[in-house]
Design brief:
The chain has 1 helix and 5 strands. By secondary structure, the protein is mainly β. It has a 5-stranded antiparallel beta sheet, covered by helices on one side. The two termini are 26 Å apart.
Length: 102
């Protein structure tokens, strides 16, 4: 079997304390293979891919690219949701993350 190009090991993530979206998610994507990620609405599929892409930082676990752990730096930005928009209407601090390889 070919080694994983992109791998998630034991990912845990929640947008709010005490409300996990992912708990111990594992995934290995291999070159030349097709992989489907299926699940119900709200099941964490988009969150998983945001973690893999480095747009979010996991609460626990790791993402590896070609076997190298991907580390993230975190900045906090304030974002106000617009009333009447498709998202909740409240002020919220959102994490803006960038990924880099060690």
């Amino acid at each position: 079997m070919t080694p994983a190009v992109l791998e998630a090991r034991g990912l845990h993530f929640g947008y709010e304390p005490g409300r996990p979206v992912l708990t111990g998610a594992d995934l290995a994507l291999r070159a030349g293979r097709r992989t489907a990620v299926l699940g119900p609405n709200g099941g964490g599929k988009t969150t998983l891919f945001r973690l893999l892409a480095g747009a979010l930082a996991p609460d626990a676990g790791e993402v590896l690219l070609d076997g190298t752990p991907v580390r993230r730096t975190r900045q906090v930005a304030e974002h106000r949701f617009v009333p009447g928009a498709a998202s909740p209407t409240r002020e919220k601090h959102e994490r803006i993350d960038s990924a880099w390889l060690e």
